[in-house]
Design brief:
The chain has about 270 residues and is of the alpha/beta class. It has 2 domains: about 220 residues, Lysozyme-like; about 50 residues, no CATH class. About 30% of the residues lie in helices and about 20% in strands. The strands form 5 sheets. Strands 3-8-7-10-5-13 form a 6-stranded mixed sheet, sandwiched between helices. A two-stranded antiparallel ribbon has the order 1-2. It has a two-stranded antiparallel sheet with strand order 4-9.
């Protein structure tokens, strides 16, 4: 049981994750996934909710519940993945988080692109996580806990800096909607597309990331680029190396952070690093 990365199974402590390699595991159909280029730089994680509430005509507020979860005997992840296969459009994600916090890994996060962000360039450079949302706009504490643990693992595994966009202004972040090449970190479907509302994925999951120590930057105001230019200059001086001072914490900055003693090349440390 675990995440499929480059054809291999990687277990994640504290999470129940099943893939198509497990009995009764789920797998995306071919129209909902495609090979990811071996040269693609994976530098973003995009969060979603299955219903996207509040959004569009449905402006009910999200409810965060402790339980009991609805129909615990039913695997709601099956409904989500089956729906993607049957809807006739390219829509999918790498992970689905059920109401009980269990997770389905339905695509190889390194080898395969899924169609979740509505922006082709973003799809190819990101990992998509779908969180099941109930008909009463509810999410569950255990789902949010699983989401944070999964993001912790993915940021560590792929060297993605632990940062997210804040605040949301009821519109996409143009830098992301136009391809996202300069945006590293975690963001929502709502930041990638004007067609999505506040509830895709909502504020609560980002508040949990903030409580876990993740940094928030106003991407519209280029706060991330400003801060990372300063950090890159500090690293270049400290290590006595040439380093691109562009504000984008890419692989060169990741390597410099490792040289400077930051575990996994990440500015923010988390349990498990």
């Amino acid at each position: 049981m675990g995440v499929i990365v480059d054809g291999n199974v990687e277990e994640v402590s504290g999470l129940i994750i099943r893939s198509w390699l497990d009995p009764n595991g789920l797998r995306l159909t071919t129209p909902d996934r495609e090979p990811r280029s071996e040269t693609e730089w994976i530098h973003a994680i995009v969060l979603h909710t299955t219903r996207g509430i509040p959004g569009g005509a449905d402006q009910r507020r999200q409810k965060i519940l402790t339980g009991p979860i609805p129909h615990p005997e039913h695997d709601h992840k099956i409904d989500v993945v089956s729906g993607w296969a049957e809807d006739g459009i390219c829509a999918s994600a790498h992970f689905v988080i059920d109401f009980d916090g269990s997770i389905a890994c339905v695509a190889d996060v390194m080898r395969e692109t899924t169609y979740h962000a509505g922006v082709r360039a973003v799809n190819h450079q990101s990992i998509g996580i779908e969180i099941c949302q109930g008909s009463d706009a509810e999410l569950y504490e255990v789902q949010l806990d699983s989401a944070v643990r999964l993001v912790d693992y993915l940021t560590r595994r792929f060297g993605i800096q632990r940062q997210f966009h804040w605040p949301y202004r009821n519109q996409a972040v143009r830098r992301i909607a136009e391809g996202g090449s300069s945006v590293v970190g975690v963001y929502g479907h709502r930041e990638a597309s004007d067609d999505r509302g506040q509830g895709d994925p909502g504020d609560e999951v980002f508040l949990r990331l903030r409580s876990a120590g993740y940094e928030s930057f106003d991407l519209d105001k280029l706060e991330d680029l400003t801060v990372w230019k300063e950090r890159q200059q500090q690293l270049a001086t400290q290590l006595g190396i040439a380093l691109d001072i562009d504000g984008v914490p890419g692989m060169q900055t990741h390597a410099a952070l490792r040289m400077a003693g930051h575990p996994y090349g990440l500015w923010i440390a988390r349990p498990g690093d």
